[in-house]
Design brief:
The complex is a heterotrimer of chains A (342), B (488) and C (315). Chain A has 12 helices and 12 strands. Chain A has 342 residues and is of the alpha/beta class. Chain B is globular and about 70 Å long. The N and C termini of chain B lie far apart (52 Å). With 488 residues, chain B is of the alpha/beta class. In chain B, the strands form 4 sheets. Chain B has a 6-stranded mixed beta sheet, with helices on both faces. A 6-stranded mixed beta sheet of chain B has the order 16-17-18-13-19-20, with helices on both faces. Helices cover 33% and strands 26% of the residues of chain B. In chain B, strand 19 and strand 20 form a beta hairpin. With 315 residues, chain C is mainly alpha-helical. Chain C has 14 helices and 2 strands. In chain C, a hairpin with a 2-residue loop joins strand 1 and strand 2. In chain C, helix 3 crosses helix 13 (264-283) and helix 5 (91-114) runs antiparallel to helix 6 (120-139). The longest helix of chain C is centred in the C-terminal third of the chain and has 27 residues, at 205-231. Chain C is globular. Classes of the chains: A alpha/beta (342), B alpha/beta (488), C mainly alpha (315). Chains in contact: A-C, B-C. Chains A and C meet through strand 2, helix 3 and helix 6 of A and helix 3, helix 7, strand 1, helix 13 and helix 14 of C.
Chain lengths: 342, 488, 315
Amino acid sequence: MHKYILFVLSLFVLCCEPPPRYESSDYTTSLTKDKFVTSNEVSPTEEYVMITTAVNLPLYVSHDQKAFLQWGKKMGVRTSILGPSEWDVPGQIATIEQVIPGKPAGLLINGTDPGIASAIKKAVAAGIPTVVYDSEIPNSDRHSFIGSDWYEMGRLQGERMASLIGGKGKVACMGILGMENMEAGFKGLQEALKKFPSIEFIGKYDDKANVETAARLTADLLAAHPDLAGIAGFDSNSGPGMALAVKEANKKGKVKLTTVDAEPEHLQLVKEGVISYLVGQKRELFTWLGAQFLFDMRHNTLPLSANDARAGIVPIPRTVITGSIEIDLSNVDIFLQNAGKK
Amino acid sequence: MLRLNNISKYFTGVKALQNVTLHFEKGIIHALCGENGAGKSTLMNIIMGIHQPDEGIILWNEQPVEIRNVQTAHQMGISIVYQERSLVDSLSIAENIYPVQTPVVKVGLIDFQLLFRQAQQLLNELGLTNLSPMTLVKKLSTAQKQMIEIAKAIAKTPSLLILDEPTASLTHSETEILFRILKNLKEKGVGIIYISHRMSELQKISDIISVLKDGKFVATIDSKTPAQEIVRLMVGRDLESVKKSTNVQMEIKLEVENIQGKGFRNISFKLLKGEILGFAGLQGSGRSAMARSLFGDEKITGGKILKDGKVLHLNHPSEAIDHGIVYLPEDRKAEGLFLHLSISENIFSAQLKKGFYNAAIADDVTLKLCKLFSIRTTTVRQHLRKLSGGNQQKVMLAKWLAQEPEIIIVNEPTHGIDISSKEEIYQLLKYMTAEGKSILLISSELPELLFLSDRIAVMHEKEIIGILSREEATEERIAALASGINAH
Amino acid sequence: MQLKERLQDRVFSLAASILILCIIMTFIFPTQFPTVENFSQLLLNLSIDTIVAVGMMILLISGMFDLSVGSIVAFSGGLAGYLMYYHDVNFIIAILAGLSGSLLIGFVNGWLIAIAGINPMIQTLAMMGIVRGLALMLSGAGIQNFPYNFIYIGQSKLFGLQAPVWYMIFIVLLFSFLVNRTVFFRRYYFIGGNERAAKLSGIQVEKMKIAAFVLSASLAGIAGILLSSRLGAALATSGRGLELRVITAVILGGASLSGGFGKIFGALLGALFMALINNLLIIGRVSGYWQEIILGLVLIVAVGLDQWLIRKMEK
């Protein structure tokens, strides 16, 4: 019995294949193999797969996924959208890993969390053109990133907030704590506010991307700090929740609200004057351009050498920042017209 | 009124009922008896529409009927009081009595005033005047719950009422009330089917008795027939009675000095080696509470327990078991059995101290015990829920005997068990005392106590009111003491 | 055993359904499904769930369940990661800290449920929130760049299968043996079937309950360490929704919410079945909207079919 256990244990130790010790840098190792799969013909069965988490999130459905599907129709290729329906990062990783063996023409991955880096590495190693969108995933070897700069979005909110409250007073913010992009946003906001010594930053709060939680948090904040000057929001539901609580407390206009995203709901609140400032992302660009990058990479649209795949060159932009949309009372009507058309 | 003609019912090849013809008439209390497995339950299930007969015809008031489900049976005016409870603990007595025909005001809200009035009226009629219809059922004693169960059946104003072992958890005086109610109903022309194992009761309350055996109809006889004769019909043979003998040795096994706890106080007695010490008393007189404390399930708040002269401090049943004290609880299903597990697992449930579990050895030991205790089963892997009540009880006894205990506390060991299993259990208890084990026997069946015990302690209002020797003990004497009339 | 009894045994019927499902999928997706790559991926992804499911199975056998396991997965990885990244703690000590933290959570759960008498649902629901908050505090936006030795635990391979798969196999075999053969674990069947009778049979029910919660939390802790090692990151959001997925798998695997039933292999097969369905949805490119609906239907159909079979057999 003991011998048997010893044998099995030693088997484990001897046969173990350790993980690569350093970051993969085999771009330089050989020039005989293609680093990614290319094709000269566009086939209607070639498939581009978008993988996200919380796949049913309205923000994702009406912007990212809509643009991606439109792009697929225009190009005459197959498009699939996969991922867990809840905010489940390991679930997204599992989905990526299970899609890789099927070798799709390209992968468009929502950069939800730095933890997905190793899964993206696997896709790149398998030779699948891979674009990360929305938030950057460091150390992932992705071929390209396209998205917004969350630090910038936080900074923009901070600067506007400072001017809205006249450079003094108490400011709070809320979003999903623990998410890399949000944390970058909080940092941008705080650093912008730091320039004004009379502004007191009272803290960041977790609204769990939930309208009711955001409203409850705001109501509690208003009760605890009757002199609260402003609140900044960082997820899609922060704004509507904050606005609800401020309206209910009859403090419309007295407490300045700034937040992210430009859904019809948000726009309406700007029109009503409850929210003063929105900073939106150009989400449609992420997926439309991202998919186009994948397509161009696969089909050698603009070759930079005789064989880019073998030369180890990525023939598409490595990093694209799409910039932000800024909305306030002065331009909200133009956005509302567009929203009405939809 | 209800005629069953040539009813047969098969379950996967087993004939549960064969060509049974029985007629139940208005205003007649018709007792039904037979051992467990004789087909009584199947017959009741067919009358209540839970099972459909495979052959035969049911006539209701001379019309052939098909009773498809319980609702149909209720609409026809048949209602039943099962052995198992169907009451909701968290609701009031009134709501429990009228679960379906709850009176409502126009908009559909419950009319509580009317509901309570109706319930009070019914309780009065049944002589349960000390109960308020607003009391929550969970506050009632087992016996009171049983009475409410009966009230619930009567509230449907049935023309045929079936009672399945209604007195199993009732005390003497409550049984009297029940009999009065039944006689009343009988005078109103209600037909009654009365199922029971208690021979004396059957003879007292019923007009005629029908006997079933092995799914077949044996005979319908007059209730004046001698009990020996009825038993012979049920069992098919004469019962060999254990001789009144004693195995008492003059060695004190257990000594209890002035113990008290939740539900009992000032309890002192001595238990000798090989002795059966009976405990008589009404429901709630403190017998079970005391037994639980002797087993370490509840703590004692004063007094001393000495075993073989040494003081015991029991904090958990496992400690009692270590000291050779075991307890056979009163409510088999709720406190004793693991219905979802096999016979051998049940037997080994008290031996889960440490080490590895070897199913093969357990099965082997169990097989021997099954033979010794004449537990009738095809395999020791049989799930306990498929055994009859008598066999279940024997499994419980076997489980504790396998532990080689010195003191066995048995609480209502023959509750709801058929007559031949009862005999076997009596023999087993006697056999154990011959082996030098001591027994505390708690029972509400006086003949059982008188038959088995060497001495009988009678409890009243949480205390022992007297200990009678075998010579002194008579049914009258015990009953008098138990109800607080000191006959000394 | 006869066929009739076999069919009533969930482990057997589930194994049969898994086999049938595999055969069907091989015919529909001959190039994508029956590949070594796909299967090693599938096993890797179900290993974390299965390790947690083993603990949950033991709890369900004793008639309880634990909703905080998902949070514990995030917590143990987060604590180990936090210590290694911010305090340069040796990876072994960091792992031990993560595991003992989980163990402590399990003990608190068990004590409050068994001794203080709080309802398991409420206690573990509350604990789920508390532990998730702790995990958020520890790992914040996620911790990366672990020492190589830590990564080794979850990313090394043996015979083409990544380490967590082997841990899973080891844990399933170990607990399957323990639950089948040791008196200690057998007691849980008695407690689950009839708690009162178990106490009157001399079983220390309270202590056993605490042990069950400690065990389930520790297994969740191990799963958390493995997950963060395999991902190379400690995520505050990992293990979200894991508890319900695991309970579903365990019930598919033959446990009953009322306790007293279940086998450890059932937990593995339940998790495997769910992972296969998930794999089918991904390979078949079924959109995210349908996933939950299909998983829900599968659960109802599987359990319903089982009940139907049993009822039919008993007739």
